[in-house]
Amino acid sequence: MTEHTTSERPQRDVQLTVNGDAVTSTIEPRTKLSDYLREECNLTGVRVGCEHGVCGACTVLVDGEPVKSCLTYAVQVTDSTVETVEGLSDGSELHPIQEAFHEENALQCGFCTSGFVMSTKALLAEHPDPDDEEIEAGLCGNICRCTGYSPIYDAVYRAADAMEGGD
Amino acid sequence: MSESAPKSSEVPDADDEGKRYTGTSMRRVEDFDILTGRVDYIHDIDLPGCLHAALVRAPHAHAAIEEVDTSAAESHPDCELVLTAADIEEHYQQTPGRLGFKEWALAHDRVRFAGEPVAMVVAADRYVAEDVADLVDVSYDVLDPVTDVYAASDDEVLLHEETGTNLADRDEFVFGDVEGAFEDADNVVEGEYSWGRISGVPMETAGAVADYDSDTDSFDVHCNLQLYTFNGELVYESLGYPAEKVRLHVPENIGGSFGTKIAAGARYCALAAMASHQLERPVKYVEDRIEYLQAGDSHSCEREYSVRLAVDDDGTIRGYDVSFMDDLGAFPRYPLPQAVKPLSVLSTSYHIDTVRYEYELYLTNKVPQTAYRGFGVQQHTFALEMTLEKAARELGVDPTELRRQNLVRPDEMPYELPSKNIYDSGDYPAALARIEELVDERERCEGGLLDPDVVEAKREEGKYRGTRPAVTLEPSAGVIDYASRFEMSDDEIEANTREDVASFPEHLAADLRPDGTVTVHLATSSAGQGHQTVVIQLMADGLGISPADIDVDYLNSAEAPKDFGAAASRMGIMLSGASVGLADELATVFEGAAATHWGCDPADVTYADGAVTRDGGGDSLSLADLAEFVDDDGHTATYGYENPAFDLPEFDDALVDKLPTYPGTAYCADAPIVEVDVNTGHVDILRYYSLHDCGTVLNPDIVQGQVEGAIAHGIGGALLEEFAYDDSGQPLAVTMFDYLLPSITNVPEMVVEHRETPSPFTVTGAKGAGEGGTISASAVIPTSINAALEPLGVTVDTVPVTPDRLRAKLRDEVE
Ligand code: FES
Ligand code: FES
């Protein structure tokens, strides 16, 4: 997003491993991680629903931890490993979490889905066999306006079964 | 967490009518691209060389604009353009409004709500566009604001001086001898109820990417408008261009709308297109969440109700008198019919012959209204249920018995309301009995949430539990012709004839591809309802081919007929009716093409299961073989499904009188188990029971999702959500920390049971399913709260029932 500008804008280097690939860029320090991923890395599966840390649509994993990328500057996480929804499946096979959301009808408009899938990945890494309370604690930072959440519980249980502690 | 419908992903056997997919929970075809992050929402659409816009928004609720100084902004090295009202006036037109109002896409002379756009700036990226926007210097002369309907009604400060009043519209409908009923009845129960300003708040905000092409002097505008084929005039008239020069495109997925994107976003389409026209480069504008909440043209109804109920000692309801004042915000917009849609369910599930219905719509310094799921019906249902609750208490009768004895009975179906809409089918008393039974069996028993011992023990802790079941209705598939009554005088409505009624059909088109697959084109945008999946299910059955051989895309607004689209819970009915018709139409085209090829009579050719065969002979062609013989000039086949109410003489009276007709009336009987903590004022819904009947179910999982999602919206409206304003007209909910959406922690377990009473009025027997839960939940939650608080004698009368409001009530009335 910097190449068109003509004014003097401060620049910083950032280097990340994004979905397994090393990425290095020179960016404005105020660039949010969400915008960096969406615009520099073309990973538009990172959704922005509020840009103030409530909706969780922008959730990505930074060194395995769920992070709201709209509240994080890209330069803050330089040298980290970032995973987005695009990194979950390669080609035509869905990751078991994605498959579980599909089978349980846990998405409608889908705008929240990337965030829920990534939060679920972090949740299952910590609690491979979660109960309702752990699911609530793990997903209370994500808002879905469409589903009413019950299929999302079902999807998490199904994914936990399918993964049986693996990923 | 809920008891949901059985799942099925494998191909089932065909039933007697040849249906293999319709009625099953076929997995959604939309999901794969969404789950892998590949799908492009409007936020993700990027065109080569695209510039980015930001808006300068007014900080005041009401002010005269004295000067817009753009010089500092224009001298910023990255500024490409600053657009102001003066530029728009010079080059473009006003946006059409309702009731004779027109608006400029940027505030002109005066700002009428905080956050109203005053200027647009364009730069290389959004970050720098916002820097430049900060440099636009606007001076204002601040005026007194009008912040509620009561202040609006005294006309001391006028929103639009030229009209001389803040009352935008009023009307009164009297059915039967209302005064007589109130004089004769044993009791008259009166109540006043308030409905806070809420809206759909989808996860995706509104936006547009516009691309002006100077060679053809025309525009391509990518947007996430709902009903983009219908309300495109908001964009092309603003530009001063004919419809065919402004092609609106919708991505295959919109990130939620719930009615709101009917009006929200049109302004952005127009502004982005103007900027693109000026710069001859693509321009993108997507609002951020704070802009959405503060001033995204997306709030909805805010009503003050006054009601009276005439009821005899034996519980017979003799008459109902309802009037409300609605706070429209600064301009009347397209969704005005929200004020009269409740006429289609005038007495909701109850048999009341004598009714007065009155509304007054006021202009205030708030965000203009758009449509929202329920479209005015939830407020009406809320007011009536609250009144019944009060009546039962005043009469000292059992509230559920009072409801039961006044329900419309199945032997009265089809039931014509005094306001002339007709309920098609259903058994309301059985639904109420069943939900009572479910609650008794599961909760009013040992160990249940309403186990009398538990209820007693909880009260000791200050926690009061209760539930109040009711049957509520979802009118669906409206003929929206009645919307034009707002622009007509009483005499004009009087002179209206059946021939004047516009039909609002749903259109589909299809093409046979050279490889024998079929592409179906929708003329409606989709925001999570699974339209593609449902159309594929119906078309696969209609054509006897595999779902894998059908795909679905979207026509742009210039290609599509300008009729309507997804709204008013109409798509289950309309798309299914259109799909059935389209499949028949395709079969006829296939048979004709084969007959021409073989030189025989089309009557001797039969299409079935993906092939045409010549009767009596061995000739047969698969769809792939046939493709080269099918005329590929335009679409292979098109079909427009007329709204069923339009075709049934039963609805003629209502149509001629410009009264709302909704031929599919879905219903539900809901019982939330609520717990009120009187110490904190917090309301917890412990479990939510719902019995839902939307006629023939096309895809059980999709219907389940609509029902549960709608209930969650109703919970938000009843307990959490509100666009409140302070006395200076400043919005108090501009972040999602203030406008609280239901999260996984406050949406309860839902127990949903389905019944299927097919509609006799629709082709497939389907009725709408998208709004019922919202309509129901936001009525039965407050009545259940009053039921829970009955031992304390405290009643709530305003939604949302926030801890704050509830504590104030408890303080005033108990402590
Ligand atoms: S976009 Fe980051 S939390 Fe909403
Ligand atoms: S699927 Fe639409 S917000 Fe979750």
From TrEMBL, chain A:
It holds the Pfam family Fer2_2. PROSITE patterns: 2FE2S_FER_1, 2FE2S_FER_2. It comes from the Archaea. Gene3D superfamilies: 3.10.20.30, [2Fe-2S]-binding domain (1.10.150.120). Keywords: 2Fe-2S, Iron, Iron-sulfur, Metal-binding, Oxidoreductase. Residues 12-88 form the 2Fe-2S ferredoxin-type domain. Transmembrane segments: none annotated. The keyword Chloroplast does not apply. GO terms for molecular function: 2 iron, 2 sulfur cluster binding; metal ion binding; oxidoreductase activity. This is Carbon-monoxide dehydrogenase small subunit. It comes from Halogeometricum limi.
Automatic annotation (TrEMBL), chain B:
It comes from the Archaea. Residues 1-22 are annotated as: Disordered. Residues 36-144 form the Aldehyde oxidase/xanthine dehydrogenase a/b hammerhead domain. GO terms for molecular function: iron ion binding; oxidoreductase activity. It holds the Pfam family Ald_Xan_dh_C. Keywords: Molybdenum, Oxidoreductase. PANTHER family: ALDEHYDE OXIDASE 1-RELATED, XANTHINE DEHYDROGENASE. This is Carbon-monoxide dehydrogenase large subunit. The lineage of its organism: Archaea, Methanobacteriati, Methanobacteriota, Stenosarchaea group, Halobacteria.
